[in-house]
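Quick one: structure tokens for this chain, please?
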Amino acid sequence: MPDAEDVRRIALSLPDTTEKTAWNMPTFRVAGKMFATLPEDETSIAVRCPKEERDELVLAEPGKFWIASHEAQFAWVRARLSAIEGEEELRDILADSWRQAAPTRLLEAYPALGVPQEG
């Protein structure tokens, strides 16, 4: 089961990512734009997620994903670290959120982190 240190290590391994405390919690930013947070007691993460996909995730896996009431109007979703199935899934979640916040120059510079290929 991934923990807060895994989140920190993986997030900071993504290009041009920095950590900054905001709202009394760690936040992770790419080129200054927030893409992940470790809210409250650091047992979950909040990440960017388009609202349509977010709703599907919550319906498909309610034990893993949920929408915090104060974030409902924004394109963010929460994920319980205890429900994430290992480091690879955590990396996928963080990289997807990073892609949504990263500027085009970074997406072009790091094509392996670019838009996922349709399978």
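The CA atoms of residues 30 and 102 lie 6 Å apart.
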